[in-house]
Amino acid sequence: MKKGILAGIAVMLLTTGCKSGGSQSGTGEQSWRNDVPAKDLVKAVSEELGDEYWPDEELSPELLDDWYGISDQMYEEFYGQTPMISANVDSLIIVKSEEGHLKDVENAFDTYREAMIQDSLQYPMNIPKIQSSIIRTYGDYVCFVQLGGSLDGLEEDEEKAVEACRKMNEQALAAVERELVK
Q1: Collapsing DSSP states into helix, strand and coil, what is residue 181?
Q2: Integer Cα distance of 26 and 83 in angstroms
Q3: Cα separation of 136 and 134, whole Å?
Q4: Whole-angstrom Cα distance, residue 151 to residue 172?
Q5: Does residue 180 contact residue 36 with C-beta atoms inside 8 Å?
Q6: Which of 22, 26, 56, 81 is spaced 20 to 30 A from 168 at the CA atom?
């Protein structure tokens, strides 16, 4: 029954637009800055979320390629943080795409996200974080946000846990957006 619920949540999330692409972020047509270092965007999110921001290990270019399928030909720069402890999945990666590779970066993140959703061997505490992960594009920047922090007290209510993670991801993206608005 739990697998059926999880499958239902996955379908709901996939059909309700947790991925948004192009140069919009739900606020209509917008001009985005193109000169903000990706590391500064991650720092803004970290400061916004405080103790609930759990990624703590800098992502290397090799792991960006190996795990996410984003090679160095696809980006001008990137900065990402993932958990040092493999039992946790909280991750934030911001890629400034190379000209002509924006869709490649978006598709690579989407492929990774889909694989994570389909992976039935996840720790139960990570399922809401994976289900609520978001890929969003602001100009040349593609963001992969999979956050949730502590879900204490929500272990028995998966729907509330997914919603809590989604809210945290949106809060993180709001911090990125504030930095990139012209």
Answers
A1: strand
A2: 29
A3: 6
A4: 16
A5: yes
A6: 22
Query: Residue 49 is which amino acid?
Result: L
**Residue owning tokens 């001008």:** 76
CA 87 vs CA 2, 50, 82, 143: distances in Å: 21, 21, 11, 22
Rg (CA), the chain: 15
Q: Do residues 172 and 147 lie in contact, with contact meaning Cβ atoms separated by under 8 Å?
A: yes
Q: Is the pTM for the entire model greater than 0.70?
A: yes
Per-residue pLDDT of the chain (182 residues; tens, 9 = 90+): 344 434 443 433 333 334 433 333 444 568 999 999 999 999 999 999 999 999 999 999 999 999 999 999 999 999 999 988 777 899 999 999 999 999 999 999 999 999 999 876 788 888 899 999 999 999 999 999 999 888 776 666 778 889 999 999 999 999 999 999 98
Q: Which residues of the chain form beta strands (DSSP E)?
A: 19-20, 57-58, 75-82, 91-97, 134-138, 141-146
